[in-house]
């Protein structure tokens, strides 16, 4: 496929706004490759790589991993996705990250999930993940078939250490201070699309309708 036909998108929103959940629906519907910075970091932590060891100390504190560490990791990964359309989830989270991404790739659209912080706090205490795949559950919204067990592999689910209420508060503060300016950055570039709401099932049809104007729906193929 010629480079000009590739679609490059970013999905943004505060922690717990549904980026992972909506990304999952997007990749099932459109031919896009999904890259989640959080999943990639957790994989590195699991494998105890050098990056994983550095990242863990920040993540557990509810702080962002340093810009140079995450930027290098993501740009390296994107290098292996040169011929694909992609959806980047969780990166960029600071203006320096956004600028570094711009220097390497042209971003066509930024999907911004605007979900109130109170809604998010409630969701994150009920979030369970399958660490191997990044599959995400919620005991109220999308519970696993068997409590504590991944539907697909039968392996145990875990709660993220950084989903404890005090850490969530720190992450939301960090979002306000460091990530909100990235929305402004993309608004000024004319690529920001904001979707507001408190329920993924109500937000998703709007995201779907928007992407439908950019990409063919391949879910029936
Ligand atoms: N109650 C409720 N939970 C949701 C909804 N959408 C997503 N969730 C859950 O909220 C948590 C955060 O969603 P996730 O997609 O992981 O958000 P991310 O941190 O932005 O990637 C997960 O446990 C989801 O299953 C919703 O509409 N209602
Ligand atoms: N682009 C990034 N820059 C710095 N730190 C990041 C980035 N992406 C992920 N992280 C680190 O990983 C943690 C978990 O990220 P993620 O799984 O995207 O969480 P959530 O989706 O709940 O916001 C973040 O709180 C942060 O410490």
UniProtKB/TrEMBL annotation:
It is found in: Mitochondrion matrix. The keyword Kinase applies. AMP binds at residues 37, 42, 63-65, 90-93, 97, 160, 171. Keywords: GTP-binding, Kinase, Mitochondrion, Nucleotide-binding, Transferase. CDD domains: ADK (cd01428). It catalyses: a ribonucleoside 5'-triphosphate + AMP = a ribonucleoside 5'-diphosphate + ADP; GTP + AMP = GDP + ADP. It comes from the Eukaryota. Its EC number is 2.7.4.10. GTP binds at residues 16-21, 127, 136-137, 200. Residues 126-163 are annotated as: LID. It is an enzyme of class 2 (transferase). One of its GO terms (biological process) is AMP metabolic process. InterPro entries: Adenyl_kin_sub, Adenylat/UMP-CMP_kin, Adenylat_kinase_CS, Adenylate_kinase_lid-dom, ADK_active_lid_dom_sf, AK3/Ak4_mitochondrial, P-loop_NTPase. Pfam families: ADK (PF00406), ADK_lid (PF05191). Residues 36-65 are annotated as: NMPbind. Residues 127-162 form the Adenylate kinase active site lid domain. One of its GO terms (cellular component) is mitochondrial matrix. Involved in maintaining the homeostasis of cellular nucleotides by catalyzing the interconversion of nucleoside phosphates. Has GTP:AMP phosphotransferase and ITP:AMP phosphotransferase activities. HAMAP family: Adenylate_kinase_Adk (MF_00235), Adenylate_kinase_AK3 (MF_03169). Monomer. Belongs to the adenylate kinase family. AK3 subfamily. PANTHER family: NUCLEOTIDE KINASE (PTHR23359). Consists of three domains, a large central CORE domain and two small peripheral domains, NMPbind and LID, which undergo movements during catalysis. The LID domain closes over the site of phosphoryl transfer upon GTP binding. Assembling and dissambling the active center during each catalytic cycle provides an effective means to prevent GTP hydrolysis. NCBIfam families: adk. This is GTP:AMP phosphotransferase AK3, mitochondrial.
